[in-house]
Specification:
Layout: H1 12-20, E1 31-35, E2 40-44, H2 46-52, H3 54-60, E3 72-74, H4 79-91, H5 101-111, H6 114-127, H7 130-143, H8 146-158, H9 160-163, H10 167-170, H11 174-181, H12 190-208, H13 212-216, H14 230-242, H15 248-259, H16 264-268
Parallel strand pairs: 1-3
Antiparallel strand pairs: 1-2
Amino acid sequence: METAGLTVHGQAVPFSTALRSLVNNPRYSDVRFVVGQERQEVFAHRCLLACRCNFFQRLLSTDLDSGVPSPVVLSTVPAEAFLAVLEFLYTNSVALHRHSVLEVLTAALEYGLEDLRELCLEFVVKVLDVELVCEALQVAVTFGLGPLQERCTAFIEAHSQEALQTRGFLELSASALLALLHSDRLCVDEAELVRAVRSWARVGAAVLERPVAEVAAPVVGELRLELLAPAELSALEEQNRREPFIPVEQLVEAWKCHALRGGTLARSIPCRRRRGTLPREHHRFLDLPLK
């Protein structure tokens, strides 16, 4: 009776090194990509991509019978991120970098590469800092990455003032900013948060060519104007006349807290302080739990 065979393995490093030499190598290449806004030409090997990734299997099966294949245009993925994807597909390993890991993560999600996605998520958590965190939060919200969103939110809560000054904060979508403004644990005073959201809305208004108030509408309801002192509300109201930002009705509700000061109605107005809320004289008249 013939004995069962035994599978033995050679060294992995020389094997992956040899395959890495084929990444973006025109020799023996049978598929060509034009990648990113810079339209960089990238060479690859059809059979390897198809067997490693269902996305490429579907993409590359459409031009098999069309004679000389045309270049495959992938304009939304940056060339550096695409080359990282190829490196992973060829070698099952990848060199990740802080400045491009979110682009690689986005590509992994779009191409359905679960293992690469997990590697990117682990790396993002390790290198997360003030400059990266809002960009990572945006990716998490866009693709429904709950654990990453929670990690980013917790980081911003601990470093709120620094995070609010980053370009990534100004580029957040309304849905990402709205989720952030729900938090009671932001270490920032409400007056500073109002200024940050106004700056965010101005950037969005310039990009989208829409009024500031229209851009701000989905998120300003989460600003807790009741926490502001009368002098601060007056200044905000005056600025709001010059540059509409907050609905008048929301300002009226904030003034009610001061008009009803000391009464039971004032204490019935829902208003929670944040972790970074600075104390003000009128706060003693409000019911201000901190979750």
